[in-house]
Structures are given as structure tokens and as C-alpha cells.
């Protein structure tokens, strides 16, 4: 498979998950998409460095590095975007599920970065503890403790936050499983 075809495959397969990961650093969907595009360009030029391993952890590491580099370059600028992500409402059940996940994702984003990054990679991107550890460059034990502490902080936040109403029970149930 040619490098261009490999890149297209990665883009089709991993873009959405990588944008969510980048959003956890940038807090802006447009900037997150830009960081992912930059990461794909770097990945294309560095494909020879990928040695018989899954592409996603390698791409995620590049995205994280791109986000951190961009933050260091523009630390004086503070740009925020309050436009919510557009969701397609295909049915009532799908809408309710997406709304619950969106509320949970928003709550995760209020956690300190070391907890939110681990929780997004593990719960939203479905990486294993081992893969999460490789992506962020820490031990598996650190990932497990950050997941545990992150769940506890999130549980306390959701229980204290009255605006979640019934969403608390669904979210806390999700975290308990």
C-alpha cells in the first residue's frame, strides 16, 4: 500500500477520535481539527518511524505533541469558541444517548488535564490501559490511578451539579461499570 493510501486510511479511521483528543487540550473544535491536520502531515513525513505497531497510539502521541507545541507558541493568545458541536438527531433514543455522552464529556473536560486526557483515551476512544500508557508516556499503574481518581472527581462533580438532574444517575452508573 502506498504512503498516500495508508494516510487516507488513517484519516478515515482515526480523525474523529484524534479530534476529540486534541479538543481535550485546545478546548476549541476548530483548533483541534487544525492540530489533527498538522499531525497527519507530520505522520505522513515520518511514516518510516512507525515500526509494526498500531497507528492510533503513534498518531495520538503526535496529536498531543502538536497541541502542546501550539499552546507553547501561542500562550499569550486566549481564544475561545462557545459554539457547540453540531449533532444529527436521527431518533429520540439516539438523541438522548448523545446528549448524555455530551454532558459526560463536558464534565470530563472540567477535570484537570492529567485526568481528562486519560479518561478520554480510555472511555471515549476505547484504548486499553496499556495503549493509553504508551500514548501519554506514563506507566500502566499511573493510568489506572488517574482513571480511579478521575472517576472519583467526576462522580463528586456530577453529584454536586444540580443542573444534570436525572443525567447524574445515568452518568454515575456509566462510571461505575
TrEMBL record:
Q: Mention one GO biological process in which this protein takes part, according to its record.
A: DNA-templated transcription initiation
Specify the domain of life of the species encoding this protein: Bacteria
InterPro entries xrefs: RNA_pol_sigma-70-like (IPR039425), RNA_pol_sigma-70_dom (IPR014284), RNA_pol_sigma70_r2 (IPR007627), RNA_pol_sigma70_r4_t2 (IPR013249), RNA_pol_sigma_r2 (IPR013325), RNA_pol_sigma_r3/r4-like (IPR013324), WH-like_DNA-bd_sf (IPR036388)
Q: Ranges for the RNA polymerase sigma-70 region domain?
A: 12-76
**Gene3D superfamilies in the cross-refs:** 1.10.1740.10, Winged helix-like DNA-binding domain superfamily/Winged helix DNA-binding domain
What CDD domains would the database entry show? Sigma70_r4
The Swiss-Prot or TrEMBL record describes its family as follows: Belongs to the sigma-70 factor family. ECF subfamily.
| Name of the molecule in the record | Sigma-70 family RNA polymerase sigma factor
Amino acid at each position: 500500500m502506498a504512503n498516500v493510501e495508508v494516510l487516507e486510511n488513517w484519516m478515515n479511521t482515526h480523525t474523529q477520535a484524534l479530534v476529540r483528543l486534541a479538543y481535550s487540550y485546545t478546548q476549541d473544535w476548530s483548533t483541534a481539527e487544525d492540530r489533527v491536520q498538522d499531525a497527519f502531515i507530520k505522520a505522513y513525513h515520518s511514516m518510516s518511524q512507525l515500526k509494526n505497531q498500531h497507528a492510533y497510539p503513534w498518531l495520538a502521541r503526535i496529536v498531543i505533541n502538536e497541541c502542546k507545541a501550539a499552546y507553547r507558541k501561542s500562550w499569550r493568545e486566549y481564544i475561545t469558541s462557545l459554539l457547540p458541536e453540531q449533532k444529527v438527531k436521527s431518533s429520540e433514543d439516539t438523541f438522548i444517548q448523545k446528549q448524555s455522552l455530551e454532558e459526560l464529556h463536558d464534565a470530563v473536560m472540567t477535570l484537570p488535564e492529567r485526568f481528562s486526557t486519560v479518561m478520554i483515551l480510555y472511555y471515549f476512544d476505547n484504548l486499553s490501559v496499556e495503549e493509553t500508557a504508551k500514548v501519554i508516556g506514563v506507566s500502566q499503574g499511573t493510568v489506572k490511578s488517574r482513571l480511579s481518581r478521575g472517576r472519583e472527581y467526576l462522580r463528586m462533580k456530577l453529584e454536586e451539579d444540580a443542573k444534570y438532574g436525572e443525567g447524574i444517575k445515568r452518568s454515575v452508573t456509566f462510571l461505575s461499570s
